[in-house]
UniProtKB/TrEMBL annotation, chain A:
Record's signal peptide: none
Stored PANTHER family: ANTI-SIGMA-F FACTOR RSBW, ANTI-SIGMA-F FACTOR RSBW-RELATED
Keyword flag Transit peptide: no
Protein name per Swiss-Prot or TrEMBL: Serine/threonine-protein kinase RsbT
Cross-referenced InterPro entries: Anti-sigma-factor_SerPK, HATPase_C_sf, HATPase_dom
GO MF annotation list: protein serine/threonine kinase activity
Span of domain Histidine kinase/HSP90-like ATPase: 21-131
Organism: Enhygromyxa salina
Keywords attached to this entry: Kinase, Serine/threonine-protein kinase, Transferase
Entry EC no(s): 2.7.11.1
Pfam families, sorted: HATPase_c_2 (PF13581)
Membrane keyword on record: no
Gene that encodes the chain: rsbT_1
UniProtKB/TrEMBL annotation, chain B:
Domain STAS span(s) in chain numbering: 16-116
Keyword Phosphoprotein: yes
Keyword Transcription regulation: no
PANTHER family: RSBT ANTAGONIST PROTEIN RSBS-RELATED (PTHR33745), RSBT CO-ANTAGONIST PROTEIN RSBRC (PTHR33745:SF3)
Coiled-coil features, chain-numbered ranges: none
Organism: Enhygromyxa salina
Segment forming the signal sequence: none
Protein name per UniProt: RsbT antagonist protein RsbS
SUPFAM superfamilies assigned to the protein according to its UniProt record, in alphabetical order: SpoIIaa-like (SSF52091)
InterPro entries hit by this protein: Bact_StressResp_Reg, STAS_dom, STAS_dom_sf
Keywords for the protein's UniProt record, in alphabetical order: Phosphoprotein
Superkingdom in the source lineage: Bacteria
Segments traversing the membrane: none
């Protein structure tokens, strides 16, 4: 997947190739939070989610990216983590909390779902896309779904 | 080892003080385990105080690393205590369902020292070290009971 071709005008894309890119992704997340005055626990939830999703890309996929976008109308920070990996074969088991990982994949995804106000995951042999949204201000939450 | 991943281990009597700061990278976390375990053996430490008050984010990987460190340190006869976790980090870990099993966690570094049996004794302005030692071991009290030094 080509980053430039898929990139929207209103989003920031951080490529994730290995674990050294995680610090950059976390830094961009903090700056995004500052942009809309999100601090404290809410900011911590967002940074931790990005850390978990970016690590999954670095460890289990051949590469990928994290996209950041602020929807000022709906008052949401939208974060999409997508990779070109082989997909997650045991996704249902992971999201049901039945998977005990020694490497951390299950815990990171499950934790991200708990932290996000909206969580949607699509996985196939062509890759995995995790869409999360975090509200700021006083808007209502979205729902959580899996494909 | 580059500067970013340098692990600070401060010997504190028979303990090791390990302050963590900022974004702890995965590489730094892995080096932390190796370095601390080597220092436990070299310095014959019986306690490891990991202070998290400067840490920006604690995710599942860093928690797993700290748990691994605590377990390995325990096998070497050293107790690990975490201190200084920020409220927002504690709330995030709780929301994620992450438990730091087997690791003692306290609010402040002072509490961590207390957990290792290290407590503060305030010295009065007129006390020198010898008199303080005598007070600590009850020598002066016994001398007072007996009517003065002999």
């Amino acid at each position: 997947m080509n980053d430039a071709a898929q990139r929207r005008d209103d989003e920031l894309v951080v490529p994730i190739r290995n674990e050294s890119d995680l610090n950059h992704a976390r830094m961009v997340t903090r700056e995004t939070c500052k942009l809309v005055n999100v601090r404290g626990y809410q900011a911590q939830k967002i940074v931790t989610t990005v850390s978990e999703l970016a690590r999954n890309i670095a460890r289990y996929a051949s590469g990928g990216r994290v996209r950041f976008r602020v929807d000022a109308t709906e008052e949401h920070i939208i974060i999409v983590a997508e990779d070109d990996g082989p997909g997650i074969s045991n996704l249902d088991e992971i999201l049901a909390g039945d998977y005990r990982s020694r490497t951390g994949l299950g815990r990171g995804l499950l934790g991200s779902r708990e932290l996000a106000d909206h969580f949607h995951i699509e996985t196939s042999a062509a890759g995995t896309i995790v869409t999360t949204a975090f509200r700021y201000g006083g808007r209502k939450t979205w729902t959580t779904s899996t494909t | 080892m580059d500067d970013i991943n340098y692990v600070t281990c401060i010997p504190l009597w028979d303990c090791l003080l390990v302050p963590l700061h900022g974004d702890v990278s995965d590489t730094h976390a892995d080096q932390l385990v190796t370095e601390v375990l080597e220092r436990i053996q070299k310095d014959e430490s019986f306690g490891v105080l990991v202070d998290l008050s400067g840490v920006w984010t604690l995710d599942s990987h860093l928690c797993a690393t700290l748990a691994r460190l605590a377990l390995a340190a325990r096998m070497m006869g050293a107790k690990t205590v975490l201190s200084g976790m920020k409220p927002e980090i504690a709330m995030t870990l709780e929301a994620m369902g992450i438990e730091l099993r087997g690791i003692e966690t306290v609010a402040t570094l002072e509490d961590a020292l207390g957990s290792m049996g290290i407590t503060r004794v305030r010295r009065g302005p007129d006390q020198d070290d010898d008199l303080l030692s005598q007070d600590l071991f009850g020598v002066r009290e016994r001398e007072r009971e007996l009517g003065g030094p002999r």
